[in-house]
Amino acid sequence: MKPITVDGGKGTVELDTEGVLQLIWKPGTVLEAEDVHAAMATVNEIADGCEYPMLIDISNTQAVTRQAKSVFSLKCAASRIALLGSNPVNRVIANFAMARRTLPCPTRFCASRDEAMAWLVRSLP
């Protein structure tokens, strides 16, 4: 499927041929609550009532606001989430997103796409 732009234009979502949802945020993105809500709505629309593993590429994300962080505890069509980052700043953003929060599905930070995809597809039937 072709990537769908999230309302607000800060990212895209697609369901790849392996059955993994991929959310890619644009370079320099500062995530606000409305961005995360819009991404979740797009994910739910694509999933059409099913659950899929999801890769969220935060490698170019600049920051996540506290309000956006609070949205991460809401359930969407993701059965598990791999947060893909490429540097220590991404790890801090991921830890900030996951800290002291009950997440709706298993979530892990991965430093490589191969590691993230291996973890995600191992959950597929």
Instruction: Provide the β-strand percentage band.
Output: 25-35%
**Rounded Rg:** 13 Å
Instruction: Count helical runs.
Output: 4
Shape: globular
The assigned structural class equals: alpha/beta
Total strands = 8
Order of SSEs: EEEEHEEHEHEH
Major sheet: size, sense and barrel closure? 6 strands, mixed
- Regions with pLDDT < 50 over 5+ consecutive residues? none
Strand order of the largest sheet: 1-2-3-5-7-8
- Between the first and last Cα atoms, what is the distance in angstroms? 21 Å
Q: Roughly how much helix do the residues carry, as a percent range?
A: 25-40%
Q: Average pLDDT, to the nearest integer?
A: 87
What do you see in this structure?
This protein is an alpha/beta fold and 125 residues long. The protein is 33% helix and 29% strand. It contains 4 helices and 8 strands. It has helices at 33-47, 66-71, 88-98, 113-121, and strands at residues 4-5, 11-15, 21-25, 29-31, 52-57, 61-64, 78-84, 107-110. It has a 6-stranded mixed β-sheet, sandwiched between helices. A two-stranded parallel ribbon has the order 4-6. The radius of gyration is 13 Å and the shape is globular. The model has no long low-confidence stretch (mean pLDDT 87).
